[in-house]
Amino acid sequence: MYDTQETEKFYNLLMQAPVGMYLLKGPDYVIEMANEPILKLWGKGPQVVGKPVLESFPEVAEQGYIDLLDRVRITGEPFQSDEIPVWYDRDGRRDQLYVTLLYQPFYEEGEVTGIFSIATDVTERVTARRKLAESEQNLRSTILQAPVAMCIVRGPSFVVEVANKKMYEIWGKGAEEVLHRPVFKALPEIRHQGLEEILQKVVATGETFTAWERPVSVPRGGTMETVYLNFVYEPFREGDGSVSGVIAVAVDVTEQIKARRQVESSEQRVRFLIQNAPYPIAVYAGPEMRIEMANSCIMDIWGKGTEVIGKRYAEVLPEMQYQGVLEQLERVYTTGIPFHARNQRLDLVVDDKPRTFYFHYSFTPLYEDGQITGVMNTGVDITDLHTARQRVEQSEQNLRNLVLQAPVAMCILMGADHIVDIANDAMIELWGKPVEAVMHKPIFEGLPDAREQGLEKLLEQVYRTGEPFQAYERPVALVRKGKAETVYQNFVYEPHKDSEGNVLGVLVISIDVTAQVLARQKIEEVVVLRTRELARANEALQKSNAELKRSNQNLEDFASAASHDMKEPIRKIHFFADRLKGELFETLTDSQKRLFERLEGASKRMGTLVDDLLSYSQVSKGVVEEVEINLNKKVETVLEDLELEVEQKAAVLQVGRLPTIKGNRRQFLQLFQNLISNALKYSAPGTRPKITITSRVVRAGEVKPDLFAEGESAFHLIEVKDNGIGFDPKDAERIFQVFTRLHSNAEYRGTGVGLSIVQKVVENHRGYIWAESAPGSGATFKILLPV
Fold it and tell me: How many Cβ atoms sit within 10 Å of the Cβ of residue 670?
């Protein structure tokens, strides 16, 4: 029997408990007391206190919990369960939880007057355990499909739980001899080689162990054979973090070791082995890292052709400059410490196309008479393995994201009943039904209006045979938003399979082409009318083209005559001014001499302007003929013409590998002449000019998304960069206009026509040009030319 004071203490204890507790009184199970943790679990506020359970939680009746309460109250026997499922209606939705539950009879004066309960939410624990089981299954699948040797051993005796074909090949025994047996009993030949002690240490410490080129004796063909392995022992952890076993990953590098030892014994054999090795090898000599040897494997990876021997590594692979590889080579050469990289991403330009690879690679110093003479590069392309691992990790989530984010209507129908498992907004819009009317229901229950139009048979066939089905402009009668319509669809029914190839359901991809079909039908109606109009328009167009040709010829004749007629007076002005200055020089004042200098300067600028205008008029005629042009040779010609100006300014020019394209030789000579002259002219005072010209192949949409879509064709991106005075970004388009000058003639001489000529040359060759700069930060002119 409890007195009032004891009851109050009990209530206070219940309210302060860190776990969910509550007290139910009477046969109606009125909630007399409930602490904060239990209210949070229920998803209810304190207003439920004082009310019967069924009034606040009517859903518990159909789950059998009232019967449990009656049994405890009547028999006086407590009820306890671990991880019992229970669901609550919270905020208009049904939440599934798992709880540990205790119903304890509550006595007053010797009689059971209520039920005292303790409940703990263990949903996360149950969910985590299930996810862990799923993760282990995924891990097993990954191991079995991995292109390298992998296995899991568990328990104190290291029982082989799973191993793939590659690992059995290393062991020299089959699955029937090893699987589900302690590894050192199934393979007694590998005992006493230190491996058992390493496994024990990994389990005891939880630390990963990695070995490179470790010799291990294994049974092969009835005899013991020594192989060399790169392997990793990774602790296998349970859900609580405890280590229960070891994941082993191994690569047989025996052949690599043998090849390296043969290289050390004979240079002739070295060259032969390198050239014929099945994995990438190259040798770089001297501090410049000149390529002394490179086998076909590594040259195939580089994608730079076979003419690389004798060239500098940085020259052949300029893309390595910003990926840290050149610094790694230099460090190995200067310190003599080998460098090893694992799972390293490298971006290469292969056959003029950017590609991403993942490698294990090593840089090893080469010695001669105790001195470092070069570096050997060995590697393994693990791109496929890396990609496969990423796909295993992301495949399920990617599929759901793909469906939900797809720009076309997509859904997944599961099972033989074709239950709608997931559907994106575009598909819901196409169906014309509320989400709740179709989701998680058989498709023809949610869309009864789509029945008996042949779709049931098609879905059943794809689900049964695993063969996809496609349809184009198929009419389907639907009731959308209460209105009967016939829609035309292009759709695909694709079997949705698990990792073992079993068909789980059907992936549906559909595009509503109703508007196109109706438009085409309308177009077909007006084709005859438009054909007649086109014939009349074509006749008028031919007359217009003839007029345009006459106009262009007149314009060209005018430009030529005007330039010659203007240059003759300019030459006379310059001639007579120079003669007059010579005859009067002794009598001229300083002011008069300056006037003569200004007169000469003005006549020279006028002559330059006429020449530039003539060049602009010639470029404006387009490209008359196209030939193969080596742009590096064009740049060399320009630099020869500008040799004096380059020397005067002590300018530094770095010209990378430029492409060979089809175009007009003279126009590309003008292009580089104007861009390099521009960079020299606008160099910063007191700073040594530096001009860099580079080229690479890009997808235009990557560098100019405002002009091109993401999948646009490949272009050569040529960049001319300087460290000059730069300009305001707001003038980036204005500088290409004829006669536009951002500075006075006293500061920087020019006519304002050069960049207009450059733009016209690029446009003549179906390209694009723009400039990027900021005051005091130099300028970069970027040119896109079609590959």
Answer: 23
Burial class (CB in 10 A: 0-12, 13-18, 19+), 644: exposed
Other C-beta atoms closer than 10 Å to the C-beta of 221 total 7
**Three-state SS at 261:** helix
Q: What's the pLDDT at 555?
A: 46
Show Cβ contacts of residue 721 under 8 Å, excluding neighbours closer than 6 positions.
691, 692, 693, 694, 778, 779, 780, 781
DSSP 3-state of 236: strand
Cα–Cα distance between 759 and 745 in angstroms, integer? Answer: 22
pLDDT digits (tens, 9 = 90+) for 140-168: 788 888 888 999 999 999 999 999 999 99
Q: Looking at 502-630, list the stretches that DSSP marks H as alpha helix, in order from N- to C-terminal side.
A: 514-584, 590-619
Is the pLDDT at 21 greater than 50? The verdict is yes
- Give the C-alpha separation, 732 to 750, whole Å: 18
Q: What is the pLDDT of residue 711?
A: 56
Question: 627-630 and 660-663: which strand pairing?
Answer: antiparallel
Tokens of 713: 């064709």
Q: Where are the alpha helices (DSSP H) in 585-630?
A: 590-619
* Cα distance between residue 101 and residue 468, in whole Å: 50
- The pLDDT tens digits of the residues spanning 369-427 come to 889 999 999 888 888 877 767 775 676 777 788 888 888 899 999 999 999 999 999 99
Number of neighbours of residue 729 by Cβ within 10 angstroms: 12
User: Is residue 749 within 8 Å of 605, Cβ to Cβ?
Assistant: yes
How far apart CA 227 and CA 149 sit, in angstroms, is 14
For tokens 């074709």, the residue is 418
Show the tokens assigned to 11: 């209530």
- Integer-rounded Cα Rg, in Å, for the chain is 41
Token pair for 636: 């060399």
Q: Count the neighbouring beta carbons within 10 Å of the beta carbon of residue 476.
A: 21
Helix, strand, coil tally for the chain in percent (to 5): 45, 30, 25
At residue 494, the 3 state secondary structure works out as strand
One-letter amino acid at 564 equals H
The DSSP output letter for 737 is S
Q: Taking all residues of the chain, what is their mean pLDDT, rounded to a whole number?
A: 83
The interaxial angle of helices 254-265 and 267-276, nearest 10 deg, is 150
The Cα 199–Cα 250 span in angstroms is 14
Q: Kindly list the distances between the CA atom of residue 679 and the CA atoms of 388, 672, 688, 722, in Å, as whole numbers in the listed order.
A: 48, 11, 12, 6
Q: Are 175 and 232 in contact (CB under 8 A)?
A: no
Chain centroid offset of residue 423 CA? 26
Measured in Å, how far apart are the chain's first and last C-alpha atoms? 95
Write down the pLDDT at residue 203.
93
CA distance 568 to 639: 30
The whole-angstrom separation of Cα 495 and Cα 315 is 50
Which helix (H) or strand (E) segment is 652 a member of?
strand 652-655
Do the Cβ atoms of 631 and 658 come closer than 8 Å? yes
pLDDT tens, 740-762?
Answer: 566 555 555 555 677 888 888 88
Answer whether 21's CB lies under 8 Å from 35's CB: yes
Coil, strand or helix: which one is 29? coil
Sorted by sequence, the CB contacts under 8 Å of residue 709 that are 6+ apart come out as: 701
Using alpha carbons, list the distances in angstroms from residue 639 to 45, 631, 661: 83, 12, 20
